[in-house]
């Protein structure tokens, strides 16, 4: 009996010890929040915007002692001690494969696009020179949590505000507009001849969903379009071929048609799957991973959109504006950092600026600023600091000068992805604002893609990554 009492006491002590450890960890987290020593960074961007390369370069340059970040205040003032990847807080999320991504870049290849949710944690040790931290310690640590996820999943967020009826009619109308219509005619004809009120055949429904998926992939890869829903149909993650992703738009319907559809009909099944997808996939993802961000960078591939035409550029701009409604913005003070952190700084970054001649870098930044001007005004009204910038997280070209007919031309030089050959190219000047259809060049714009380029010391280089780092975390390491 005595031994049972001893075991009970020991178990009670262990339970109390575990509770104390959890309380201590929670208290430490709150203290770090209060002292502004913890940043949760949202790296946001549509597909092909370069999120994986950005995160890899961000980590690489902050964990290498001799990285060139001249505009980063910690390096300027010689207060930077070291950066190191440490164990992440959320063990239920896969770790970002930094080692593999870095290896690919160092081999002159772009890392594979993200196909699942990933995270990592970076600690930066530095010497504080102002505020409470400088009085408390000679060395301080800033913890940065970074989340990475497929851009396709981000595209689903606007669905949270739409009914099935509104979503269906809007998406089907898009299929009939160029450039989608050039690829959608056969699918539209098949949908128009089908009786959606009849009893559902799940194999047939799956076949329709696969055809719609193939169309979305064409819109993404060939047309550089960004209005692609449902995102999990083309980047499923753990939902590969799951029935919850098997829905698609059908010819325009009205509310009465929807209400009169029998429960086992195709129409009712599509509506049920749409609503379940919103609830179990989109809302769950949004609730679990989009809360508590402090800072946000939105990466934009403007050159890719310009290359595909005005429709692609306009659609990219519209999608970015609609996405911003689903993040929590506002000023952060001491109490909000502790209990309800909000994004108080946002950076719109036009990536791949090294694909332009250096004198046209500013033009790309001006174009991005023009596209997000309305959203920027709204965010400023909410007390959020907003900046636009043109940068390259990883350089893929170098600037060269070519003499032609006595004229010096500022060109770029790199290995073309399309031709697999080294190429000297004179890039066009991008517009500084969205051009009207009449102003758009008759032959459009042509911006080739290039493989990553290492310098003579076999190191990765960047364009203005130090400006990006300073903007995102410079005020956290004073």
Task: Reconstruct the topology from this structure.
Blueprint: H1 2-34, E1 38-45, H2 51-63, H3 73-76, E2 80-86, E3 94-95, H4 98-106, E4 118-126, H5 131-136, E5 140-148, H6 151-154, H7 164-175, H8 181-192, H9 202-221, H10 231-234, H11 255-260, H12 266-289, E6 295-300, H13 302-308, H14 310-323, H15 334-339, E7 345-350, H16 361-371, H17 373-381, E8 385-390, E9 398-404, E10 407-415, E11 422-425, H18 465-473
Parallel strand pairs: 1-5, 1-6, 3-4, 6-7, 7-8
Antiparallel strand pairs: 2-4, 4-5, 9-10, 10-11
Helix pairs in contact: 2-4, 13-14
Notes on the structure:
The protein is α/β, with parallel strands linked by helices. The chain has 18 helices and 11 strands. Strands 1, 2, 3, 4, 5, 6, 7 and 8 form an 8-stranded mixed sheet that branches. A 3-stranded antiparallel sheet has the order 9-10-11, with no helix packed on it. Strand 3, helix 4 and strand 4 form a beta-alpha-beta unit. The longest helix is centred in the N-terminal third of the chain and has 33 residues, at 2-34. The protein is globular and about 70 Å long.
Characteristic terms for this protein:
about 475 residues, alpha/beta, eight-stranded mixed beta sheet, globular, three-stranded antiparallel beta sheet
State Rg: 25 Å
Helix content: 40-55%
Distance between the termini: 61 Å
* SS elements, strand count: 11
Mean pLDDT: 88
| Anisotropy-based shape | globular
Which structural class is indicated by helix and strand composition? alpha/beta
Instruction: Give helix and strand order, one letter per element, not per position.
Output: HEHHEEHEHEHHHHHHHEHHHEHHEEEEH
Tell me the β content. Answer: 15-25%
Low-confidence stretches: 30-35, 333-340
- How many individual helices? 18
Biggest sheet details = 8 strands, mixed
């Amino acid at each position: 009996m005595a031994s049972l009492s001893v075991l009970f006491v020991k178990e009670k002590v262990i339970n109390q010890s575990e509770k104390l450890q959890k309380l201590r960890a929670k208290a430490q987290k709150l203290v770090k929040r209060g002292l502004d020593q913890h940043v949760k960074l949202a790296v946001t961007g549509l597909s092909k915007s370069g999120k994986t390369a950005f995160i890899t370069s961000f980590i690489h340059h902050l964990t290498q002692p001799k990285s060139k970040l001249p505009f980063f205040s910690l390096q300027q003032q010689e207060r930077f001690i070291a950066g190191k990847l440490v164990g992440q807080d959320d063990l239920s999320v896969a770790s970002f494969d930094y080692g593999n991504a870095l290896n690919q870049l160092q081999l002159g290849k772009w890392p594979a696009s993200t196909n699942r949710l990933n995270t990592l944690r970076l600690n930066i040790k530095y010497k504080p020179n102002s505020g409470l931290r400088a009085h408390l310690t000679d060395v301080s640590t800033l913890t940065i949590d970074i989340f990475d996820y497929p851009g396709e999943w981000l595209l689903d967020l606007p669905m949270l505000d739409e009914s099935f009826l509104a979503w269906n009619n809007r998406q089907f109308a898009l299929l009939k507009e160029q450039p989608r219509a050039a690829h959608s005619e056969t699918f539209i004809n098949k949908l128009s001849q089908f009786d959606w009120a009849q009893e559902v055949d799940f194999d047939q429904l799956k076949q329709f969903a696969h055809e719609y998926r193939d169309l979305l992939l064409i819109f993404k890869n060939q047309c550089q379009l960004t209005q692609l829903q449902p995102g999990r149909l083309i980047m499923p993650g753990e939902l590969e071929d799951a029935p919850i992703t098997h829905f698609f738009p059908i010819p325009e319907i009205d509310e009465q048609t929807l209400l009169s559809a029998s429960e086992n009909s195709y129409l009712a099944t599509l509506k049920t799957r749409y609503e379940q997808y919103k609830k179990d996939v989109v809302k769950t993802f949004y609730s679990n991973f989009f809360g508590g961000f402090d800072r946000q960078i939105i990466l934009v591939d403007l050159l890719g959109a310009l290359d595909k035409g005005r429709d692609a550029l306009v659609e990219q701009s519209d999608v970015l504006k609609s996405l911003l409604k689903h993040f929590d913005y506002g000023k952060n003070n001491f109490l909000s950092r502790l209990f309800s952190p909000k994004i108080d700084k946002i950076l719109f970054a036009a990536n791949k600026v090294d694909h332009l001649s250096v004198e046209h870098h500013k033009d790309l930044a001006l174009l991005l600023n023009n596209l997000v001007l309305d959203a920027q005004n709204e965010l400023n009204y909410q007390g959020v600091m907003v900046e636009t910038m043109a940068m390259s997280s990883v350089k893929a070209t170098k600037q060269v000068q070519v003499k032609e007919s006595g004229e010096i031309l500022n060109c770029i030089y790199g290995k073309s992805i399309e031709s697999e050959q080294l190429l000297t190219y004179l890039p066009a000047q991008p517009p500084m604002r969205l051009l009207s259809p009449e102003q758009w060049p008759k032959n459009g714009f042509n911006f080739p893609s290039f493989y990553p380029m290492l310098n003579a010391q076999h190191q990765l280089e960047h364009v203005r990554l130090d400006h990006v780092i300073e903007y995102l975390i410079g005020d956290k390491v004073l």
